[in-house]
Amino acid sequence: MNAQGILQSGTNFGFTVFRGMNTAPDYNHHGGWNGNNHNPTATNSRLIGGGVSLTLADIVAFSVGSNNPAIPPVGINTLSFLAEANQVYTIAIGGYRNGSWVDTIDGYRLTVSQVPVPGAIWLFGTALAGLMGFQRRKAQKA
């Protein structure tokens, strides 16, 4: 998953992915949860404020980076995680551009890509080859 700014170049985003759906009507995207998060461990600072129903145990992935110009962001706009089938995920996106929330207004484009598991492709191909072979044998008997 990759986030890009629409209105301004160089826009950085912090985001957290939760398993489950947030049942609260809103969240506080101006909190500190999306900045100066160089700690690669899921802590309470990864939780978003504003009465959100998601907990620390619901965190699946989060971006790691900084909003300090002296410390470059590390992977802040790109995030990878293993999404399970038939699951609902909440993606909370915040942003910063080395300034306060009033002067860092920007839209975003979130690109989500699915990457197939090579083993699943191999198994699917083997199953198809087996079905084709079974069909041929059946035709020769008649």
Structural overview:
There is one protein chain. By secondary structure, the chain is of the alpha+beta class. The chain has one domain. It has one helix spanning 118-141; strands spanning 2-5, 12-19, 59-62, 89-96, 108-111. The longest helix has 24 residues, at 118-141. The termini are far apart.
What is the number of beta strands?
5
- What fraction of the residues are assigned to beta strands by DSSP? 15-25%
Mean pLDDT: 70
Tell me the domain tally.
1
> Whole-Å distance between the termini?
53 Å
- Coarse shape: extended
Count of runs of 4 or more consecutive helical residues? 1
Major sheet details: 3 strands, antiparallel
Provide the gyration radius in Å: 21 Å
* Helix content estimate: 10-25%
- Largest sheet strand order: 3-2-4
Structural class: alpha+beta
Order of helices and strands: EEEEEH
Low-confidence stretches: none
Task: List its salient traits.
single chain, alpha+beta, three-stranded antiparallel β-sheet, two-stranded antiparallel sheet, 17% helix
